[in-house]
Amino acid sequence: MVKHDFKVKTKWQGGRDKVGTVKGDIIESQISIPSSLGGKGIGTNPDEMLVSAASSCYIISLAATLERAGYTDIQIHQQSIGTASFENGKFQMDCITHYPEIHVNEANKENLEKRLSKLLEIADRNCMISNSIRNNVEVDIEPTIL
After folding, report:
1. How far apart, in whole angstroms, are the C-alpha atoms of residue 12 and residue 52?
2. Residue 97: exposure state from Cβ atoms within 10 A (0-12, 13-18, ≥19)
3. Between the chain's N and C termini, which has fewer beta carbons within 10 Å?
């Protein structure tokens, strides 16, 4: 078994209407509660980072899966939407939906359309974030081939 640590440092002072920081090896941002939830809305927030982590992990996994399947001349543009709910005094991320647009040359389009559902499933199974949130957050994939 191979293990790898991902380290971040966070700082916060004061109550819920303040602004903190998060810093990792690469990422460095202010953090706060989103303004839509009554916070400062400065920098990013945990909800956005969760959706960003899921989206970036899935697009990388999908690109690697497509490459292994022989599709090397592709571009993927993806929007991901996280839907959260507030119930019984708790916030929870219910669902993250990825909308990958896969741009492929015309010669490979029909072949990719036939194989796509299996390749999407493989990419999801190989995504560390999908694996980490599975059974807690629903992950849906709604692809488009262009």
Report:
1. 21
2. middle
3. N
d(CA 93, CA 130): 13
Written as one letter, the residue type at 12 is W
Between vectors from CA 47 to CA 42 and to CA 49, what angle results, nearest 5°?
80
- Note down pLDDT in tens along the chain; length 146 residues: 999 999 999 999 999 999 999 999 999 999 999 998 899 999 999 999 999 999 999 999 999 999 999 998 899 999 999 999 999 999 899 999 999 999 999 889 999 999 999 999 999 999 999 999 999 999 999 999 99
